[in-house]
Write a structure and sequence with these properties.
CATH topology: Sufe protein. Chain: A
Number of helices: 5
Strand content: 15-25%
Strand order of the largest sheet: 1-2-3
Largest sheet: 3 strands, antiparallel
Radius of gyration: 14 Å
Number of strands: 3
Mean pLDDT: 92
Order of helices and strands: HEEEHHHH
Structural class: alpha+beta
Distance between the termini: 45 Å
Number of domains: 1
Low-confidence stretches: none
């Protein structure tokens, strides 16, 4: 179990040090900013759509390793998905972070996102891990109106 925790920690640290898709997107279809005033984490999520498919996603942010790694992992997880698939992925991540009810097959489907499961042990850090995901939801709501 310790080796699994180490792997998860390595994934979080790697995505914090070398975040994927961390740049301001030119001409996004939608975007939304998220701020956690309790700890100072900030993120802006940019989404480009073709119909209902997310063709590109990026973010700009600053804050703790968990918030930045979660944003990086999110961009990889939702790129190429439909809006509905991205919303389902968001719900699964929220379950991962707040409950221990996902089956082993559901956990396998998460890939590197499963590294965020360790955050569940630190309730004060859950908001750090969900900030980018809530911002994604806000951005997508703008195009669903």
């Amino acid at each position: 179990m310790d080796s699994l925790k180490e792997l998860y920690q390595e994934i979080i640290l790697e995505h914090n040090k070398h975040p994927r898709n961390a740049h301001k997107m030119e001409c996004p279809t939608c975007s939304a900013e998220g701020v956690n005033p309790l700890c100072g984490d900030e993120v802006i999520v940019f989404v480009k759509l073709d119909g209902d498919t997310i063709t590109d996603v990026s973010f700009l942010g600053q804050g703790c390793a968990i918030s930045q790694a979660s944003a990086s992992l999110m961009t990889l997880a939702i790129k190429g998905k439909t809006i509905e698939e991205a919303q389902k992925q968001t719900s699964i991540v929220f379950e991962l972070l707040t409950n221990d009810i996902l089956s082993p097959s559901e956990l396998d489907k998460l890939g590197d996102l499963v590294a965020l499961s360790g955050v569940r042990q630190f309730p004060a850090r859950i908001k750090c891990a969900t900030l980018a995901w809530h911002s994604l939801e806000s951005a997508l709501r703008k195009v669903l109106v």
